[in-house]
């Protein structure tokens, strides 16, 4: 990348800065992060803009495009709550910058507030002195849905209710930071902040280094140590509990699990046994020592909390009570997210800490208190009304009823305050503060003020509370959008805390040398299932593409005739029939180009190559913490390559070119699996899926093109589909014949495309996977694989007529089902504890 000093002259830099900032002014009534009330730039903004100004706008745009390409290639995405579609991660190109002095003051207030929340939870679930002393209304506690009675009297393992605290903050009317909301339930956003940093640091590495931006690794290392603090075992197994791939924050959770080396699990992956929490793995039950939950507390234990929950683990609260499980954060900690608590925090801080809050919030009155209700009624037109309890997820500030809405529905509001006043809080809630954001017009880039909310994080570590030097910033693209919740129209921004001294790189090094390990780790059954089907779907896509290629081009040598010249001949008809039977084409009689386009790119066609690739990508999405960035890029390229406009007609030549490029991408994906995946259980399952699917597909190919009456044209197609023309030509000079073709694609153990080769590989994989039986007797899937291998070793080509091939295909399907029953079974009867050995 071009050094900053070589980009443009001082005059060009000054001209760009003047144009970017021309006309920039804070929105009426809103404090701004860039400009102070007197119109002067704040803190670090001049330094940032000056350095960006040394870049020409074409260079800037090239970097923006590079960042967007990286986001796409890495599969960084998000879901809006309630929407199953994935959207590309909306990272803005301008970071929020904060000077070191300002950040130190902000951090001190955040640490004080985090410790105060910890003390409140310890009292509420313990002695109850705050309620007894009149500092906290009993109704506010007992009436909150976040107060979990089964947890009263709990002594949290590790001694902490909170291991992670977050706060949504913005600038108040006086320009100082204030807390808009406390996040103590299961704070999200750290993974997004991490992804933002990785993208923007590689987009502007020169600017990043020159401005001395504080780094993240030391914080995350300390946070991980804090997660493990209090565990019974010296080398604890830490799990991150997610609600699954359709969670709006799943990508973020996977990024955190990968970065921190945590085991990403769902509720079905966990089970209680002997009073301890265990992970269901392909090796049996393995003990979980610490759990970072990212699901709401009410869904955590269906036995004691919400019986309708399917996200949690029955009986897990028992592990908390007996001290065998450390959790971040303890269930019930969401009580501190109540908007009503803000009315009492100043008094509680003076009571528990002996000092005023360093980081306050907007003035608040709880309507369950007579004095608070009276004040709200008297000032209803000047206040904002919001729920006292935590609003439903996805509601954000939409749950807030401002003065304008109050005026439109005043009668209903007054009635609600009369009937259920304790459900509401009145606040002096000012419009959100703004920060600069890029806007592109015909004359180039300009800076415009946009509303933002900054989420900052504090983690309790073995050395006390530490604040992440940055945060998760959400910026609205329009003035009338609220960025409290991430949704369409909201962008994210990296947060740069600028150090006033050189960044100490030694802090990023491990404080102690870790013990050398060569263990492969334990693979959850759910992850094994996803990896297995990832391999199968990739192989299905390849089989469909190979059929289309065979239909679109000549075999091109002496082994067969050109079937393009006879698109309705018997061999072509068999290809069309097979594509239809596989669900890749809606009808065998379609024109060749239409049939090929449908089989390759049909979005609504369940068996098309595109459908299989998207299924593979969905399975990969559940395994984001296990696949490399290169694999994601190949998958993204494949999806793009096979995403053609269905309303546009493509020629056979164009479709052939796309199909051939797709085969190259699939070969790259297979190579990445072979070269980049550690030879642990995960690799075994990816390759098992590919091998089984390839063997089954080859059976179908043989039934269609290597049957007893097959002509040279069909046999040539068979060799092409199995990518075995070169091997056949090197062995036989006489031309294609049935038995030699069958022997090569079915029985030859040296041909990586033959069924025999797949069977041998499957048996090796199964032999290397862990066994759950201690009696030495092979498990059912191993016995079945051994029988298949033995049959191929002892058979001749003539043995595999149509009946023999159909029987072998059924045996392979049985083997796939047997593997699934052994390793992937789910539900209440899946991998029952009494069946499992190897607890550890």
From TrEMBL:
Residues covered by the DUF403 domain: 523-824
Top-rank taxon: Bacteria
Coiled coil, from the record: none
Entry-linked InterPro entries: ATP-dep_Glu-Cys_Ligase-2 (IPR051680), CP_ATPgrasp_2 (IPR025841), DUF403 (IPR007296)
Gene3D superfamilies named among the record's database cross-references: 3.30.1490.270, 3.40.50.11290
Domain Circularly permuted ATP-grasp type: 95-476
One Pfam entry name: Alpha-E
Name of this chain's protein: Uncharacterized protein
Organism: Methylobacterium symbioticum
